[in-house]
Amino acid sequence: MLAVTEEMRTVMDFARKVLEGDGLGPDACDFMFGNPQETPLRGLVDALIRHVEPQDVHWFGYKKYEAPARESVARSLSQARSRHYKPDDIAITAGGFGAIAAALLAVLEVGDQVIYPRPGWFAYGAQIRGAAGTPIAVDLAPGTYDLDLERIEAAITGRTRVVVVNTPHNPTGRIFPRAQLDALADKLAAASERFGKVIYLLADEPYARLVFDGHAHISPAESYPHTLIAYSFGKTLLAPGERLGWLALGADMPEADRIRLREAVDMAQVSHGWAFAGRTLQRALPDLEKLSIDVAALARRRDRMVEGLRAAGYDLPVPEGTFYLIPRSPIPDDMAFAARLATDGVWVLPGSVAQLPGRLRISLTANDDMVERSLPVFARAIGEVAG
Q1: Do 284 and 362 fall into the same domain?
Q2: Residues 256, 217: one domain?
Q3: Please, what sign has the CA dihedral across residues 349, 352, 358, 361?
Q4: Any idea where the Aminotransferase class I/classII large domain is (predicted)?
Q5: pLDDT digit string (tens) for 284-297?
Q6: Mean pLDDT score, 299-312
Q7: Rounded to two decimals, what is the model's pTM?
Q8: Do 147 and 8 lie in a common domain?
Q9: Same domain for 85 and 7?
Q10: CATH code at position 52
Q11: Among 26, 202, 256, 267, which one has the highest count of C-beta atoms within 10 angstroms of its own C-beta?
């Protein structure tokens, strides 16, 4: 856990500094961690109310899975991805954190290496350490933020057990194309044969439904049979505090491996503190599966923010998915520039916290009013440093 602490130190120190300060008041423009800034979806609230009312004395008793929850996920995956997913291959987890933890705990031996993308989600290293693994960060291709297949291949050793692919990618918004995923699959298959053991691919897909401009989400599971898919409802419902997600075994995984992994994932959740999603959330899942925040409205917010930031002089790509923007900081010290914005009530995540030094990460979970109030602050701040 001390190693986990070191992996999380940068983000935790930043969060502590923000939360212990007095600047993040009710009028602040909060673009930091992706916390919701609008009222929760009415369908989410209604589903929770409907399913929390006890129907028998066992309503809140011990139970790992509610069958309708697993069936709903399997049905939705099968329809969306033109493959047959089985309910028995779906683990309902305590959010995306729980899904990733279950996957890593199920397949890692002590000291096994896990390759993950940099820049990337700030908790990968911590979760790998927490499962007694060794995190190996591999940079995405500079500029394009594509998978750097040569770097990934060079990082694979006899101790490599998992390669993480996050698409659409946090924080860049990149959707990795099929050709890259196919090429990665070929390299993982060759390395698995060379070292005499399966190297798993962990497809981290919490933003799979948050895609823009006619883009389609492309899952690595369709390229590589030994894939585990992690998903969180916290993004599409914009309710990250309600811990609901799932882990699915790839539909093309060989049956012998599937049987062993079902048991391993199950025991990973038991041994990790009974890390199954709560029964009310599981009962509500078939209703929640049909819900989503307004992706078209999110795209309009993205476009407004990109337009305003570019007009002010910021350099930033247009994301294909997720709800983040990554403008370049106008000064090399992104921490210092984020602090400057905060003095005027605009709070962003410094890129250094997300392994993206020299940039800022802006979460579009802020509401439209925050966007409009923030743009003059962004313009004024860049004008000060340019002048």
Answers
A1: no
A2: yes
A3: negative
A4: 40-373
A5: 999 999 999 999 99
A6: 98
A7: 0.96
A8: no
A9: no
A10: 3.40.640.10
A11: 202
